[in-house]
Amino acid sequence: MTWGVLLSIIVVSALKILxxxxxxxxxxxxxxxxxxxxxxxxxxxxxxREGRVLQGEEKKQxxxxxxxxxxLNKYYVHSGNKNYFLSPDSTENPYIIDMKKGKHSVxxxxxxxxxxxxxxxxxxxxxxxxSLLSEHFQGRAKTVKTQ
Length: 147
Description:
Elements: H1 2-20, H2 24-33, E1 45-49, E2 52-53, H3 56-68, E3 70-75, E4 95-101, E5 104-112, E6 117-123, E7 126-133, H4 135-138
Antiparallel strand pairs: 1-2, 1-4, 3-7, 4-5, 5-6, 6-7
């Protein structure tokens, strides 16, 4: 009985020390697994709008502004719904970002409004929606109604 208690205390103490003193790259990797608004890398991303693919400096600037955007809130969407998150207030065609995250493909659909950007993330048969705030992107929504 004493040995069992002593061994359990040692094991729990070792796990506590291991968990609280993980190296920074391991912590970043673990957090990246559960990150909703992940950063984009220009080499793995394809951005299209109305069939036109963004290239060169325009693509780099778009990715840079997307990475700088501030996360506002998450929307809860039923993943079985094929009409995932179509907003009736949007009169523009959305930007579509296709990328690879590990061995899975991820599609982001961006709808621009005067006060926010709605992002729909499709991956692994899941649908997640959230909104962003970006001063640069808000300028793109000149002709769209306020939400």
